[in-house]
Structures are given as C-alpha cells and as structure tokens.
Structures
1.
Amino acid sequence: MGSDCLFCRIVAGEIPATVVRETETTLAFRDIDPKAPVHVLVIPKEHYADVATLAQGDPALAADVLATSAAVAEDEGLLGDGFRLMFNTGGYGGQEVFHVHAHLLGGAPLGPMLARNLA
Ligand code: 5GP
Ligand code: ZN
C-alpha cells in the first residue's frame, strides 16, 4: 500500500498527526475531526484494509491493536466512566479510510449505539 493510503503515510511520518502512543506494531493518534472529548484512532502499522482482513490475516496484530486501545483508554482516564471502541467496516459500516482503525471514544456519555434503531 504505502503512498496511496492516508494512514500508511501517517505511519511513515509523511503526514503529521498527534500521536498519543506508539508500539513496535501499532500507532494511536487523535482524530482530526473529533466526535467526542476523547477520539483516538488506533491502527496497526502494517496495512490491512479492515478489521475482518486483519483478524483473519494476523490475529496477534489484531490483539496488539486492542491492547494499545486499552492502554490509551487508561492514559486518557476512561476506564472508570467507560468508553466505546468501534471499527467501521465497509460500505454499510460507513468506513471512509481503508486502513483498519479502531475509534476510541469517550470523555462524555456517548448516547445510543446507533442514532436510529434499524431493526
Ligand atoms: P472511518 O469513517 O473510516 O471509520 O473513519 C475515518 C476517520 O479518520 C474519521 O473519523 C476522520 O475524521 C479521520 N481522519 C481523516 N483524515 C484524517 C487525517 O488526516 N488525520 C487524522 N488524524 N484523522 C483523519
Ligand atoms: Zn495503509
């Protein structure tokens, strides 16, 4: 992937981001358009398009993304009041950037899981 992918370019340092945590395999940085007082994106440094591809291709790396997300949640003081961890996936999921990313959201009550009940 690389130069065509926005988040690969952030990993490469070609596009600036406010990084809050970095490990050997993952990067966590603040969303450019936050939807909550805390809105951090957590990604594997290696390119996978979405969470299904990641989980099937490298389950240990998927676990790294979860572990980094939990560490950031702790750093941001979210463990007491709670938070939401979300992977938008594909068209129906509303995914816009096709480098898998967990949205870590918190710092205020986040409301219902979805704006409308679609069931
Ligand atoms: P998606 O809709 O794919 O689940 O989420 C993509 C997220 O990436 C959005 O919340 C959007 O605000 C964020 N985003 C898009 N471009 C950039 C960028 O250049 N830098 C950062 N930090 N976040 C971005
Ligand atoms: Zn990428």
2.
Amino acid sequence: MAYKVVVLAGDGVGPEVMREGIKVLKAVEEAFGVEFDLVPYPCGGKHYLEAGEEWPDGAFESCKTSDAILLGAIGYPGATLPSGDLAGAGVVFGLRFGLDLYANVRPTKLYPGVKHKIHEGLKQVWDPEKVDFVIVRENTEGIYAPIRGILRRGGFEELAVDNKVTTRKGVERIIRFAFELSKRREGAPLDGRKRVTCVDKSNVLDGCRLFRRVFDELAEEYPEVERDYAYIDAFMQWMMRGPEAYDVVVTSNLFGDIATDLAAVLQGGMGLAASGNIGDNHGMFEPIHGSAPKYEGQDKANPMGTVLAIQMMLEWLGERKGDGSLVGASLAVEDAVKSVLKEGKRITYDLGGKAKCSQVGDALAEGVKGAAGSRG
Ligand code: IPM
Ligand code: MG
C-alpha cells in the first residue's frame, strides 16, 4: 500500500529544496520497498499573485486524507493579502490550526564536521556531541491565536491588539508531548539525564503562570524525567552558553518561534534546521528556513533542512503505522546526511562549500541507497 504524501513546495527556494527531498524519497522507495503516492499542489505568495488564491480548492481536504504533508517554504515579495497578512501564511496556519497540529517539534543537533555559525576565526566552542536537544513549541494558541485587530479611525490606525491565549487543554497536551519525548530520548549530553525545561515568562504573564502550574502537575507523572525552568530571556543566553544541559525544552508559540531560529545557529544554521508539526491525527513536516526569494532558481539553497524534515516524517509515520521499513529508512536518511556532512565535499555555500542544491540531493539519495544495506 502506498502512503499518500501531499507535497506543498511553495515559494522561492521551496520548489528547489523540495525537488531534492523528493529525490531522497524516491531513493527510499527503491531501497526500502515502500511506496509513496505524492500529491502536489501549488501554493504560496507567488501562486496568490498568479491565481488569486493561496492554494487551490480541495488542497486542504486532500491534506486531511493524507498520511503526511510536506511543505517547502512560503512567502513572496509583494504578495500580501488585503488583510495585510503574508500571502501563503494561510497555508501554514490553515494546516497548523485546521488539522490541530499542536506540537511543533524542532530538533537542534550538531552533526560532526559542521561548522556552526559563530565561531569563524575563533576556536570552535561546541563539540558535536554537546548539542542535541529538541524544542517543542506549542503550535495552536499563544499569541498566534487569530484573535487580534486594528482600530482605524479617521483613516489612522489608532490601536492594535494581539491576544495571547492559553488554555489548560492546549498546555496539557504540549507538556505531555514534551515529557513523552524525553522518555524516549537518551537524556542531555551533559549528564545523560532526561530533562524537560519549561521556558516561559511566568515572572510577568498569567498565561505563563498557568503553563508552569500545569507543567508541575504533569511532571509528577514522570518521576524519571528531571524538571527544569527558565525564563525565556535568560534561556536565550543559557542555550548559547551551555547547550549540553538541554534535552527537551517546552515553550509557548512565539517564544518557540524565536528560540528555534537562534537554536539553529548551534547546529550550523537554518539550512540544516527541520521541523515537524504534529497532532494526534496528522503531521506536516517542513524546513524552518524561509523562501529566500533572492536565491530562487539558482540551485543554491541547502536542501538538508527539507531532507531532515523528511527524516522526521519517515520516523513519525513509521511509528504511527507500525512500519519498520519506514523507521529504518529514517535512520538511513539521517546516516546519509551525517556522512555527506562529514565528508565535507558536497555541501552548499552556507556550510562553506561550493556544491549546488541538486548535487547535495544526489549525494544524499546515493547515501540512502548505500545505507539501506545496513538499515533495511
Ligand atoms: C516558522 C515561521 C512561521 C511562524 C511564519 C512563516 C508564519 O517563522 O515556522 O517558524 O511564525 O511560525
Ligand atoms: Mg519562525
């Protein structure tokens, strides 16, 4: 039976990195005897300018009946909706809210051979084995809840309000997700201890106080997992100074959005950062980087973020469906990324290399086929 995967390549470099991702999926099909029914839809800001819609009618319904969804990148210069929203964001939020993808899972892992982003000219500060944590970002409420507005009077914008919404249900499910994830991991690189860090601003905000209270309540159910707390501002510096102390970090929507871009610096930059938007019934996987329109069509962007998002998809789908071939394939994809990085020859400009996006895709697809023997 083929797994239905909806492919939303989107804007800018999205279609290029997605093309390489699909190349890797084809290699997985060949090497692991699994089958994907890939269902593409146009979407994004450019599509909006051309067709007057962010994505076609029926695309959301198709996502609903899929086994998984892949998204490239969204955002095109000059593509804005009459409401002022970025054209294409409706696709991202349509899926996150519409399919209740409440956990935005963003791993930060430094692979051997990768130069991270703030050491040039200096001694390397972090060893690969010291950076391996996951930020779990709440994805359906917080300040992203679409309860906002601008008051215009006499042609002037007088007032704007964004409401930060925190519900017990929303907090409970994201915190439980984080503890369950920690249970399955190997602990923090520093001491091998399973640990969940609650990142909030509970010294000021009521929603964060509720978040922390629920965190404490649920933590009682997980005596094998250590609890840890940080205010978001302090966490920003501790994460950079001592990433090895972290295992799983759980936080609200906007804090997670900001923290994960900074966290990507620890793993070699946005070109390597991947994410899964996961709910109880659906999953959507995407690189964290944007559409980078200035690089569009140059075959230059790093496809590894997309390929690592595909790795997350394979693992999630494999566990969900009880399909060991998919889990094996996810390990093979990660092995392929690791060995291409370690070899250091076929890497893109952002990592200090000269390879094209498509050459990296070729190397990764080849690597997957090579790794299949040991992972199949
Ligand atoms: C992300 C992005 C999105 C977000 C944008 C594109 C709406 O920054 O996935 O982190 O804010 O969630
Ligand atoms: Mg972001």
3.
Amino acid sequence: MGRAMKPQLQVMKFGGTSVGDAACIARAAQIIADGARTGKCVAVVSAMSGVTNRLIDAAKAAQSGNAQGALAMLDELAAKHASTLTVVVKNEAGRTKVWQKMQQVFAEGRRFCEGTALLRELSPRTLDTISSLGERLSAPMVAAAVTELGLPSEALEASELIVTDDYHGGADPLMEQTRTKSHARIYPLLEKGIVPIVTGFIGATLDGERTTLGRGGSDYSATILGAALHATEVIIWTDVDGVLTADPRLINEARTIPNITYREAAELAFFGAKVLHPKTLKPVVEAAIPVWIRNSFSPEKRGTEITPKGGRNGGVKALTAIRDVTLISIGGPGIVGLPDVVGRTFSTIAEVRSNVLLISQSSSQNDICFSVSSADAERTIEALRKEFAQDLKHEKVEHINVDPNIAIVAVVGENMRGTPGIAGRTFQALGKENVNIIAIAQGSSESNISFVIEESAVKKALEATHREFGLHLTKNGN
Ligand code: ADP
Ligand code: ASP
Ligand code: MG
C-alpha cells in the first residue's frame, strides 16, 4: 500500500433504497463527491431496490420453462433503468456509453434466462449470474452521476476485485487474493483522482466464475473492500438513521444508538436486524476499522458508529427478531443412551451448510432442539432423517419434529454480564404479556439472551421488552 494514499480512505456503501430512483442516485453521487473532495473514496453500490428480487423471479420463471415471462421481466427492468438513466445523466455522450453497457448486461441476462428455460434447470451458478445483473446496471449509472458532478469516476465489477470460494449464493472471500487484486486495480485509479464505483454483492472464484455473497451482501462487500484496502472507515449509507434499538417497522419508539460494539452489532445482524448483513463485521475486526451506519436521506445526521469498544453504557442496547426460522427437535428417551446424537446432528447440519441460530438441550437430555433459517429447513430435515434413518427405525431416536411457526427474539448488549437480573426482567415482562416461551439460550459471551416464541407474538414481545429496558429513552446520536 502506498503511504501517499493515507491519511484518509473511506469505503462507502449505498443500499438499494439509497440508489432506488433518479433522485436517490443524485443524492448518493453528491455524498460520494463530497467524500472524494475531502479525501480518497471508494463507493460500493447495490442494485436499485426491488431489482434483485425481480431478477430472481425471472430466473425462477425461466426454470419453470416460461422463457417469455422471464424475458418480459427483463424488458420491464430495462425500461426502468432507461428512464432512470435519462434523468440521472444529462450529458448525451455519457448517457449513450452507460446505455451500451446496460444493453450488454441485459443481453447476458436474456441468454442465461433462455438457456435456463431450455434446460428447465437453474444451477446455483446460473442463479448467481442472473441475480447479480442489478449491481452491474446500477454501478455505471452512479459512476456517470459522479462524473457529472465534476469528479472523474469509473464503474468496476467486484468480480475483478473480490476473490471468493465457490459457494454460490453465499460465498466468502479469500482475503489474501482479494487484497492483491483490489490493491492492483483500485490504487492506480485513486492516484489518478478517479473515483471507483464498485458493484456490491458480487465476487468471483479463482477461476473467474461469478459468485454472490448472499442476499443483502453488499454490506459485506463494503467491509471486505474496506479491510482489503486498509480503509480508515467504512460508511454504510442506508434508509434509516443508524442502528436502532429495534426494527423501526415493528417498534415506533425505536431510537438510534450512537455507539455500539462490533460484537453487539454482529449479534443484532446475526439475529435478523436487516440493517446489517450477518457477516458485515467479520472482515474489519482484525484491523479495527470503524463502521458507520448513516442515512443517505438525511446525511446531516451523525448515525451509529460501530467500533471494537463501542459506547460505555452497559446493559441492554437493542432487540431484534427473526421470523423466517424453523425449530427442529430430535428426541425421545432413547437418545440418552446415544451419546453421539448431538455430534451426528451438528455434523449433518454442517455438511448441508445450514445456519444454526440457537441451540437448546433439555435438562433431562431427552430432546435437543435448534433453529435454522426456514430457507435451510427442508434440506436440513432431509439430511437428518437420512442420518438417523436406522435409529428412527429402531426407535432409538423417537422423533424429529419440525415447527415452522416460530420466531427468535434476541436481547443484545455487551455489558449485560455486569448487570444482573436481565434474564429475569425479560421473562417477567414477557410473562405479564402472556407470551409463551418455547426455548431459551444465552450465549457464553453473555452479550445476548435469545428465546423462541410463537411467531404471532413477536410484536408483543418486542414491545414489552423495549419498554422494560427503557430503550425508548436511549439518547439519540443525531
Ligand atoms: P439497504 O437497502 O440500505 O441495504 P436494508 O433494507 O437492507 O437497507 O436495511 C435497512 C432496514 O433495516 C431499515 O429500513 C429497517 O427497516 C431495517 N431494520 C431492522 N432492524 C433494524 C435496526 N435495529 N436498526 C435499523 N434498521 C433496522
Ligand atoms: N442487491 C442484493 C440484494 O438485494 C445485495 C444488497 O442489496 O445488499 O440482496
Ligand atoms: Mg441491506
């Protein structure tokens, strides 16, 4: 890394709503330009909001043989991008250049949808190619908008920068290779005063095959690049004022948290706070790079700063809930005599790469239950039934039960360790509201208490705990 590049390098990420229409793109371009005028700045952009979902719909339509339907969806998306482009880029030459690029991207989308429809088969690899088209469309538009503000800018595909494993649909970076590639590509641009605008969500394997980092993965792209480029800070620009004490869509009284630790933010993200992709903090932990969450619609507000130490106030910081989860329990009196059940259960889960969110074992040891994302449930259950087929037949394992109508609520705060009685207060507050608790887990880090409830009780549970811990009195950072 050239020392001359210091003192400041910001990596900024703009989410789907922050580039959701022409006015938003103009606002994002202004924020990027302001950043690039005061220091060095690399931007990471998501697809325009709704576009990734639509691309996945198109891929699924193609998979079912409906090529016409898939192509019609791509046409709709082309019209949306064309009309946005017309407003965003005033200069005709610049507009033509972006439109040509977009047409290449759409042509690739059509080819892949047609191929999928022909075979009626959608491999994870093809799904990655189709679902990543949205970022390849938004980045050139944002770059053109920044250029129009008088700062030369270039759109880059992250497949040139972020090297990943080949786990399509949820790839992880190979940091050493990513560092080498992104240095070689980004620093020369920065030295020439060109602002790089990188596609979020996307990477490529060592062989150059396109991958994606998972839904909502542009946050992860930003911190991967932040770590790879030794950024001074990463700023995630979104549509809320920062990390809030609870999901503002569920709790009106949620407040912005001014400072939060990596661990707290990671717990919130892991337990479903959509504002951060679950893996966002992973790449920046080692270098202790601060991550900010800020509102692109109100850039004058301070937002939330995420650092290793966070704020000083202990106790409960925030609540979160995940609804799309399934509870699986394996049990029966027989499992007492089968000490390997736990081991076999979790190695089976690991083999199918399911994400386990919570584990609880009953004291009588007749039952272990755990929850996984509902998206992972079917393949997990199938794998477990196969693994335990013999035991089920001989009734050593009595049942593998599945409950999809549950949710997990997590109470998060790093210094809860020093604050006794939090679990008691939580369950008392829930008891008062008649919320039935199905299972409980407390991480050994003591930075979260999580519990399983019926899905229909989520709002009530969040409201009761939010009030119990006075989170509505959190001093706003803004
Ligand atoms: P982006 O498109 O910028 O990536 P997302 O929609 O992925 O934005 O994430 C932002 C959304 O996360 C907010 O609009 C909010 O509804 C939701 N959210 C859930 N929990 C929280 C929380 N604790 N703090 C802030 N936002 C939250
Ligand atoms: N566009 C991708 C998605 O919708 C990635 C992201 O927005 O972070 O999942
Ligand atoms: Mg997001």
